[in-house]
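Batch job 17 of 40 flagged for manual review because the log was empty.
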Amino acid sequence: MLNLSNRRVAPEMSKENERLYSLKVLKTPKAGKLLARWLSGIFLVLFIILFLPWQQNIQGYGSLTALTPANRPQTIETVIAGRIEKWGIAEGQYVTRGDTIMVISEVKDAYFDPEYLTRLSEQISAKRGTISAKTAEIAALEQQLTAMRRSMVLKIEQANNKFQQAILKVQTDSAALEAAKLNYQIANDQYRRFKVMYDSGTISLNKLQQINLTRQKSEADQETAANNLDASRNARVIAEVDISATEAEFMDKISKAESDKSKASSTLFESEAELSKLTNQYANVRIRTSQYAILAPQDGYVVKALKAGLGQTIKEGEPVATIMPENPDVAVELYVKAMDVPLLSKGRKVRLEFDGWPALQFSGWPQVAVGTFGGVIEVIDFVDSKAGQYRILVRPDPTEEPWPNQLRLGSGVYGWAMLDEVPVWYEIWRQLNGFPPSLETEPSESALGKKAYTDSAPIK
């Protein structure tokens, strides 16, 4: 049994086994041995596979779009309300920037008059004439005010001169009155002395009468000088009053002229406001008339006409057609779970599978994938686009095969954002426990699309 002898009993046992059923049953079948070998090999291969590198990824589903908003499908809207009079395009037709999409007519009664612009132009011309006339009137009033102020200054100076002359006349008459009083006193004293001499018989009556005549003349001169002084004082008062009267008279005229000027200025301002309003109305009507023809905003294809027929009324801002730009910068928008967003960063590689394009994808081994295309993360939204999901924009990877030209915007896309490599056993363990993928290093602020803040940044 220990196979120590040189004599082999195996051949004899094999012959005996053919006759003995029990020994034949105890013998291991060849198929079992083969199955055991295969299972051992499979388990060995699976064990080896557990230590192979597996690239973690984040899965997302989305659709094709354009990277820049200007290259996405655009809805053409009407600026004004109107009635469809003519269509200038057909669905699927290629149009260039400025081509007429449709022509509409006016539906508001305020703009039915075909000569509305001409009438507005005439009103503007008339209002400008009114403004010119009021401007000239204000200039004339300004000149009149200037002349009045100069005349007032001259008149007041003249009245002041008369007042000064009256003051000097009062002074002169006062001196003359004092002289007349002195002469009268002298003549009166002289008359008393001669009267004494006449009474003593020293002089004759004729001499006394002459002295008395002189005294009476001095008294008359004194009365005349007093009257002249009163007249001079009255003239001085009158001259002083004339100054105030002259100033009041001119101030009244100046005030009236300034009032007329203010009224003219008010009318001028109202006319300028009305002119501005008419000019604005004219510009609005002119621009409105240019909106009757709805033009294509850019080159592209008419995808769909949203209105049909002729004579249909449309409102302001109502869409009439959709245009697809000719050469959009194709990108993919994928939606990923909120728990996966912190693991993504700009520049991450993405594998894409387009609807209708045959593909075989091994998410952990992108090198052996067939029919998938490469992309690079360009944008990561800062707010969720759907409930619990965030949008990322993926542009074509310039280092890999270009995307097919047959792709159309809006078609579905399935994508895998590639992360770091881990062993297969770790990935299986992570999936069984429901853990998120892991990164070796934290994404930088610039990779996340955020502005990098430093300690020297000002605090607002």
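Reviewer: the log was empty due to a logging misconfiguration, but the result itself is present. The helical segments are 10-19, 21-26, 30-49, 116-199, 205-290, 424-433. Unflagging and moving on to job 18.
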